[in-house]
Amino acid sequence: MECSSSASSNLDALSRTLTKLLHLHHATTSPPPPPPPPPPLQTLSSLLAQSPPSPSSPHESPSSSAIAESLIAELFAIVSAIKASYAELQLAQNPFDPASIHSADLAIVAELRRASDLKYSYLADPDPYPNPNPNPNPNPSPVLSLLREQRNLLRTYEVTSKQLESDLDSLDSRLRALRSDLSDLAHANRALESRLRGQPRSLAGLHLSGLDPTHLLAALRGAVSAVKSFVRLMARRMERAAPPWDLDAAARSAHPAAAAALRHPRHRSFAFVSYVCHRMFSDFHHRDFNLKPLAERRAWDRRRFFREFSHVRSATARQVLDGGLVGSPGFDQFRRAKYASVVGPKMEAALFSSSSAAAAGGSPETEWAVGFAEVAIRVWALHCLFYSFGEEMGPAIFQVRRGSRFSHVYMENVERDHGPVGVGIGGPGGGPATVAFTVVPGFRVGKTIIQCRVYLESCEGERTVVIS
């Protein structure tokens, strides 16, 4: 019995000892605290922006500075190489060159990989050579990188120069093509004008229903022809006056804008024609010419104007001087008012040595009176035909201000029919030709433009055409 009791007590003591040991083991083997998180990776730009640490040894600062300098120089060389290759890639697009495009693309990819490798190698170990005597050539020398950068910049400039030369050649080719097109269009335009001038529309037997702008053009040509004939009479009268007139001074006096614009003595006639047309076509856009004796014309409709045109279109100057235009109320007042505006007492006295009422409209044997009567009839007929177009056609008369830029749409150069003297459609310095003065006004009927005739000068200003 004693043996059994002794064994039981020994087992209990052993159990208690093991339990204590197990508790002690659990207490000493508790899990350690979690490790601190690793510091975040820094970008290459943030590393380069940081101030270099103060040297802890005499060799640390020179090594870090040399590595940073080499890194930056290599980065600039890589960027310049990418720019040069990209410029070559753009140049190879036009004209399309597959081989050059492929070569430039490979060069760009290679430089990008080189930049990526440089970045990750630096992030992994910013200072891989802490020894006081590192390998003397661990990375490309900054001088070599700078040299490569300059070579790449030179490549970029060469590519840009080639691109500019290509653009210049393209613009030259386009300019030559446009000049050729302009020449063809001008030739076709002259051919059409020759056909139009060679086949003038007849005003005889014209009916209101068949009226179109070409009839107005025919009437305008008749009026301008009468004006030119009268101008020739006026020039001859000036030369025969006592004392003879200075025609150059007379041209400058008749049209102040012609003082500095006329380039040839024979161009004086342009100034005289412009002067007569300006006076004769003054207030043309009024139904009554802004004359009180013609006030009744304000109430006329297009049919009444066309009847008046049909009545006077075949009239002659002799008929006017013999007994006037029967059935045309106000024509005599119009003729006398315009004569006073164009000639006036002072000019008449200088031309004829004394004021002559017979010259104005009394004596049928005077060539001067016949010439002016013809002008009055043609302008009167043109005015009646002008207002024979309905309001829906929007008829308008216009002239061009001095200094306006020459336009082929609205204008015709009067020098084109008078030999090679002149500036054509361009100024002597290659700039745009501009208008010195309007010689004959233009007209617009619906969508049809009858060009005004202008005398050109060389001027750098640019203005617009004004339609009144």
From TrEMBL:
This is Uncharacterized protein. Residues 147-195 form a coiled coil. Residues 30-41 have a biased composition (Pro residues). The lineage of its organism: Eukaryota, Viridiplantae, Streptophyta, Embryophyta, Tracheophyta. Residues 397-455 form the GIL1/IRKI C-terminal domain. Residues 42-63 have a biased composition (Low complexity). It comes from the Eukaryota. GO terms for biological process: negative gravitropism; response to red or far red light. Keywords: Coiled coil. The keyword Iron does not apply. It comes from Ananas comosus (Pineapple).
